[in-house]
Design goal:
The chain contains 13 helices and 10 strands. The chain is of the alpha+beta class and about 375 residues long. The longest helix is centred in the C-terminal third of the chain and has 29 residues.
Length: about 375
């Protein structure tokens, strides 16, 4: 059992961090529009695990996670890092794996370069964790295509998207086998998107509602065969739940460095804060949570790369990282005191950005249910 990264993997992280620092200053990340996506594409972030023939790097799951961890460490704007990861993992991955050759040629080059922005639209008001309650429908149009009707909520990147990966019911009697996946051009007649939703954190990832009103989608924009929507979704969620949360590993690394510098430099009652066990032990706990979460995430990705994708390992990783990010964020605010509570320092934003991690991509409660099932309970 070997736990060290290879020289190639260390170089991948170093080069990713350097490209991010150079191409994505905080002011650009926070500014909606094409420029930040083109910069992310130039930095190689949008094609990490996508096919080389379409401009991607064709990385495996662990190496993709390592690059996203470096992105999260080097980029102060976790919201945009999340937007990039959602674009890549929830949209690029299913198009690459399940799209027709024609569709891959049409979309993947633009997605890798940032010329196209992708949104994932699965969640509905009545279908969050319970995706079987989906109400959006896709009926055959008699010409080999489909007509979509319905409304999705909390679609990351939707307000600025060119492509929307979405899911709809094609056979109401078939349960999970009656759902089908599509890559829908946002410019089609019958597609509408709301203004960005106001939310607690991840401000630079614009999320919105997507409406389909008699929207006609041609057959080659279907992902996989009819009825394979759940398989497509679970495949993309395997990538998202394993890799996306690596950005929080990077955020926690940066956060611990900020807290350590603060407590070593600030003096109270004639001593540095770092000399107080109540302070130093809190940072020790933060480090312990991060390292435990990192090992679980690396293990889940390594298992998938080895051909043994394990839903239990992925669920353990997702819970560990998201819960650690929230706990460490709370500790960071406490350690910095008034400076942590103030918006100017950025630490309070890290906590707000972390809270959603326990909800999206499957709530912590759903992940614990998967872990319990894996244990035979």
């Amino acid at each position: 059992m070997h736990f060290d990264l290879t020289p190639v993997q260390r170089s991948l992280q170093e080069q990713t961090a350097a490209r991010v620092a150079d191409a994505l200053p905080p002011e650009l990340c926070a500014m909606p529009g094409r420029a930040r996506w083109l910069a992310a594409g130039e930095a190689g972030l949008l094609g990490l695990c996508l096919p080389a023939e379409h401009g991607g790097a064709a990385l495996g799951m662990l190496d993709t996670a390592l690059a996203l961890e470096a992105f999260g460490r080097a980029c102060e704007d976790t919201g945009f890092a999340f937007a990039v990861a959602a674009h890549l993992l929830a949209c690029g991955v299913p198009i690459a794996a399940h799209g027709s050759p024609e569709l891959r040629d049409e979309l993947l080059g633009g997605l890798v370069a940032g010329r196209l922005i992708a949104a994932n639209a699965m969640t509905e008001d009545g279908a969050g964790s319970d995706v079987s309650a989906m109400a959006t429908t896709a009926r055959p149009d008699g010409e080999g295509g489909y007509v979509l009707d319905g409304e999705k909520s909390w679609a990351s990147n939707a307000p600025e998207a060119d492509v929307i990966v979405t899911y709809a019911i094609t056979d109401p009697q078939a349960g999970f086998l009656g759902q089908t996946a599509f890559a829908v051009a946002a410019s089609l007649d019958g597609v509408g998107c709301s203004e960005p939703l106001e939310k607690m954190g991840l401000d630079s990832c614009l999320a919105g509602r997507v409406h389909f009103d008699r929207c006609r989608v041609v057959a080659h924009h279907r992902l996989g065969h009819e009825g394979a929507g759940q398989a497509v979704f679970q495949h993309s969620m395997g990538w998202e739940r394993s890799c996306l949360f690596a950005i929080y590993l990077g955020q926690m690394d940066r956060q611990i460095a900020t807290c350590s510098a603060h407590v070593k430099g600030r003096r109270q009652f004639g001593a540095r804060l770092s000399e107080r066990q109540a302070v130093s032990h809190r940072i020790a706990d933060m480090i312990g949570r991060l390292e435990a979460a990192r090992m679980l995430l690396y293990r889940a990705c390594w298992m998938a790369d080895a051909g043994g994708h394990d839903p239990t390992a992925t669920a353990l990783s997702k819970v560990a990282v998201s819960e650690a990010a929230v706990a460490n964020g709370t500790d960071a605010v406490q350690l910095l005191g008034a400076a942590g509570y103030a918006c100017a320092g950025g630490v309070e934003r890290q906590l707000r950005d972390a809270l959603g991690a326990r909800i999206f991509s499957g709530t912590s409660e759903i992940q614990r249910e998967l872990i319990a099932r894996g244990a035979g309970l």
